[in-house]
Amino acid sequence: MTTTVALDFYQPNCASSEEELITRAQAGDADAFCLLARTYERRIYSLALHYCRHHQDAEDLSQDVWLKAYGAISSFRSEASFYTWLRKIMINCFLNHRRARSFTWTRLERDSSADDAGLATQETFVHSGLEANLQNRLVMEKVMQVLAEVTAQQRLSFLLKHHEGMTYEEIAKELGCSPGSVKKSVSRTVIKLRQRLGVDDETTEYSEAIGEYHVGRLGNA
């Protein structure tokens, strides 16, 4: 029987600090863990959706992350932040999921997942007017298309760099490779993305509304 961590039933208590919730969760308080998870569930889901591009796969992957985190919460130590610890679990889940499922990313899949790209846009960008929202969606769809065309390793490296803001050294440590390999992988994805967006000058702004995938960040790959 599959265990489910239900996150929607509980409402956050602003008076409870993260440290308090962690302590309670480590003592076996499932409610405290669910309250703690609500802080990061949208961020985890957004990253999962960017990684696998399909609602159901993203939901399954996110659920796997939370199940693993729930089972390992007693091992958390305050040397690192809770999210840094959670992100390590997330990366391992992503890598294991990739090996288990062997995702295939084809051009035919793009047409069937246009709604997924739209949802990712909503998760990623702040709404600031109809025109800006449309521009954001068009840019995001191109980003998602490029991520569908690169390898899973390149996709994950790119997301960890530009979505999570990790350094090449941090990514290399998590993926078990050299910083140089990570940089090369991210650069290849960035080159494809710049070509798809039609931007040649590294100092040029793609759009003021591009959010997490702003050219200023992509240009520093």
Please specify the SSE layout and strand pairing:
Layout: H1 18-26, H2 30-38, H3 41-52, H4 55-72, H5 82-101, H6 107-112, H7 114-124, H8 130-149, H9 152-162, H10 168-175, H11 179-197, H12 215-218
Helix pairs in contact: 1-2, 3-4, 3-7, 4-5, 7-8, 8-11, 9-11, 10-11
Task: Describe what this molecule looks like in 3D.
Helix 4 (55-72) packs across helix 5 (82-101) and helix 9 (152-162) packs across helix 11 (179-197). The protein is built from twelve helices and no strands. The protein has two domains: 8-103, RNA polymerase sigma factor, region 2, helix turn helix motif (Rna Polymerase Sigma Factor, Chain: A, Orthogonal Bundle); 105-221, Arc Repressor Mutant, subunit A, CATH 1.10.10. It is 67% helix and 0% strand. The protein has helices spanning 18-26, 30-38, 41-52, 55-72, 82-101, 107-112, 114-124, 130-149, 152-162, 168-175, 179-197, 215-218. The N and C termini lie far apart (44 Å). It is an all-alpha fold and 221 residues long.
Mean pLDDT: 76
Uncertain regions spanning at least 5 consecutive residues: 6-15, 103-119, 121-128, 203-217
State the name of the first-level CATH class of the largest domain: Mainly Alpha
CATH topology of the largest domain: Arc Repressor Mutant, subunit A
Note the gap between the termini. 44 Å
Helix content: 55-70%
Could you give the count of β-strands? 0
Structural class: mainly alpha
CATH superfamily of the largest domain: Winged helix-like DNA-binding domain superfamily/Winged helix DNA-binding domain
Order of helices and strands: HHHHHHHHHHHH
Number of domains: 2
Q: Please, what is the oligomeric state? A: single chain
Q: What CATH architecture label of the largest domain applies?
A: Orthogonal Bundle
Number of helices: 12
Share of residues in strands: under 5%
